[in-house]
Request: fold
Amino acid sequence: MGIRNSKQQNLPNGVWPTMITPFQEDGSVDYTSLRRLVDWYINQGAAGLFAVCQSSEMFFLSKEEKIGIAEATVQYASGRVPVICSGHTSDTLEDQIEEMTALAQTGVDAVVLITNRLAGEDEPDRIFIERLEKLIDTLPQGIKLGFYECPYPYKRLISDEVLEYVVHTGRFSFLKDTCCDSERIRNRLAVMKGSDFKLYNANSATLSESIRYGVNGYSGIMANFHPSLYARLVSKQLQYPGSGDDLQNLLGPLSSVEDAWYPLSAKHHLKVQGIIDTVRTRKPGPECLDENHIRIIEQMHQLISTHYGG
Reply:
């Protein structure tokens, strides 16, 4: 498909769902369900789509599957919203460069780097920056870049030193922030001020507060359950800071379900609505939810449908 020009307009504010990957019963990628899923996200108010991420089970996808999913998502979105992707799960920098170069060719609007892939848990920021510099110099110049503080296999939060370097490069447009710390978010926004680098909070509980500080939107797990409510909350806060407290007080507590056998829980929710055909996952764990978790997911959906129409 080729590389999108990095001089295109900035990525939009709003909700960026971390997409799940639908699988068929035989374990292969279900592209029919993927098309319905893309339409559902967009119809629910997504500003953009984050494909081939941890929610997509990227650590359990082959390189060919990652490329296929990214290409299909771009095709199915049909220019209605931008698409970004991650997927550089290899251990060596050379293999990561190969992965990301291939993903950059799929037509996505940005390729998102995983922070824990550039340095080991005990390695300092100096090593992180050295490898990042090599990666940036090697990747095609025409592609926007992003960062994702993925919690697996370990969570590496971006330090102020690294963030200052990243902003200085002028190459980065997207940060999926998973620090869950309002004060740290404020510090990050101060460093990013005046740049095209945008911050999207993955944490539901701090979302409203963080948008008042200048966060550009939401990119998290719960956009697989009720993205329309997150779109509504983000829109309200961006237009009228301090509004939407009723939604925030609902979405914060409901986000506790993200700890319950995800992404299986999201797949059950989406299957019940007829968006995907199976709950098949590749992530190690149970193959289906127990009765208690099924009741929680279905009661959550009923609550939102009855009182919020989402």
User: Anything to note?
Assistant: The two ends are 35 Å apart (CA to CA). The beta strands are 14-15, 49-51, 83-85, 110-114, 144-148, 172-177, 198-201, 217-218.
